Amino acid sequence: MPKIDILNINGEKVDELVLSDNVFGAEVNEHVLYEVVKNQLANKRQGTQSAKTRSEVRGGGRKPWRQKGTGRARQGSTRSPQWVGGGIVFAPKPRDYRYTLPKKVRRLAMKCALSSKVQNKEIIVLDALNMEAPKTKEFAKILNNLKVEKKALVVLGENNKNVIKSASNIEGVTTAQVNTINVYDILKHDAFIITKDAVEKVEEVYA
How far is residue 178 CA from its own chain's centroid? Predict the structure, then answer.
């Protein structure tokens, strides 16, 4: 079972935590991660893009020149796709890109994502993360104590408005709760900061 240090907000080791081998020690399946990330990005698409086909473009009713005798290629309309101002071939139309993946695949991908953070030593477990008031400067100081310089995902065990507001103005930092974390966000961020109580909830949900 993977063992990891528990730090306080000053970056000091206060304890050790044995992580669940089933959740944080799974074999990383890159194909499953790819399928789930692709699914998440597809589900985020608005699908509102639209262009006009030759039947929808205005004009082009009159034949531009006679069929034979001009030496030029025959043309039936100035709104054919090869003309400037003509319609688009196979024009995109509004559609829904959403599709679903099996629950087992989604659960496996989450375990793989969490395990990859442990294997790459990109996970930081905090004993607690509480703030008396929303202060961006104080939160930035905490990140500095933890030696986090790049994108970071902060996972909380419960809704903490002060922490969320403090982190919202820092570029590259995203906050989430156990029930809102997803594979794409975990992989997109370089550092994975999670509180001890959130680890327990994650292990309970994905055990």
Answer: 15
Under CATH, what is the fold of the domain 3-45+100-206? Answer: Ribosomal Protein L4; Chain: A; (3.40.1370)
The pLDDT of residue 101 is 96
Tens-place pLDDT, residues 74-91: 999 999 999 999 999 999
Contacts of 11 (CB under 8 A, 6+ apart): 145, 146, 147
Contact 127, 8 (CB under 8 A): yes
pLDDT tens digits along 172-187: 999 999 999 999 999 9
SS3 content of the chain, % helix, strand, coil (to 5): 35, 15, 50
Under 8 Å between Cβ of 75 and 64:
yes
Domain boundaries, the chain: 3-45+100-206
Helices (H), 48-207: 103-119, 136-145, 161-168, 183-188, 196-206
Q: For residue 33, give the nearest of 112, 115, 88 by alpha carbon.
A: 112
pLDDT reported for residue 102: 96
Q: What is the DSSP letter of 207?
A: -
Listed as ranges, residues in the chain with pLDDT below 50 are none
Give me the residue label for tokens 């829904």.
Answer: 96
Quick one: DSSP state of residue 120? T
How far from 79 is each of 55, 62, 84, CA to CA, in Å?
Answer: 8, 10, 8
pTM for the structure as a whole? 0.82
User: Closest Cα to residue 37, out of 96, 92, 112, 94?
Assistant: 112
